[in-house]
Amino acid sequence: MSLLGFASWSRIQGSKDDDWADRVSHLWTVVLLVCFTILVSSAQYVGDPIQCWCPAQFTGSYVSYTKNICWISNTYYVPIDDAIPANIHLRQEKEISYYQWVPIIFLFQALMFKLPNLIWKMLNDTGGLNMDRLISMAESTQLGKPEDRDKIIYQVAKYLDRWLKAHRQYHYNLLVRIRQRFSNVFCFWFAKRDGRFLTGFYLFIKLLYVANIVFQFFILNVFLSMDYSVYGIEVLQSLIQTGEFKDSPRFPRVTLCDFEIRQLANVQRYTVQCVLPINLFNEKIFIFLWFWYLLVAVLTVGNYLSWLYQVLFASNRYHYIKKYLKIGDNIRNKNDAKFARKFADEYLRDDGIFVLKIVAKNSSELVLSDLVNHMWSLFKDNPHTTMPNEKRQREARTNGKLPVSTLELDPDELKEMNHHH
Fold this sequence. Notes:
This protein has helices at 2-13, 20-45, 60-72, 88-93, 102-123, 131-140, 146-166, 174-183, 187-190, 197-224, 231-242, 278-312, 315-327, 334-362, 365-381, 390-398, 411-420, and strands spanning 51-53, 75-76, 95-96, 254-263, 266-275.
């Protein structure tokens, strides 16, 4: 049974090609909402969601009709000390219209929380990299045999090396410069060869998570016909002032129901008092959801701003890589540090750093350290790579002894080359 449970949870969890903050939204929140849907649906369809106090002359069929008509139509709430309005329109303004549709709104919210993840899964491989397969290989090294571990990590490094080389810019002309200008703003639309496609697309998905959690409060404001955005604050104020949890008029247990019965040519109107036991569950669930959504909002916005900071400042690429190269004893002097900066900024670029961060978040720091140092070795062994003794190699390149690659040239040099050609 435990193996079946693990397998089922693995299927629910899906691939690990994002970070923990994303999974709070598209995994944990979705699971919570589905569980609440099952709970409320059971109370509605298995139990008795409404009971009405009917007039004495009502027989069994009349009582059943009253319960059904009051459940499918909207009841309304008037405090017990207030008089029932004589005006029908005033009663309609106090109607409670949400309790029948709570399971549906929970499922809709679950879909909204899952949607950014579905978009990411469908479109992230357009960047030319199978993220799911890559992370699975990196993660498998933690449980595999020691003799296979280094071999698998080298295969991952080689795969990333080929991907990075395949998505480089090997021409530099006016059209490329214009596209690079656009890629600074629209990363995932124009920057596939500029090393920003996956990073920009992932930031867009992060923004969808942020927009979704804000949108959820607006959905519930409309659905519940109340200012749900401040509901949690009201609950806290009530607890602080009275020291106990009081029933909220937002989720009344006792309501009123108006209905009409046609008897031949006569139409008789009745007003009965009903009890909504289902609101006992609804109130507690929506209180919990308010605080849960607040937590998700803080985590999602904070995580998005953290990723945005790491991407916007180019120096973060070098600082992220440097610690792993130091672990492998690959930075010993200023020349090594300079070369490491070139490794981060011109070889890995934003997309390479992004993939390494996702690998680290779904495996371990040890796996990432070995992977970075394998990629460092591949970078150094590349004959087109400019080594620390740049002056000598630039002279050799000028004399035609070394091939020219855009990896070792800056934009001004490429412009000059294209002009001569």
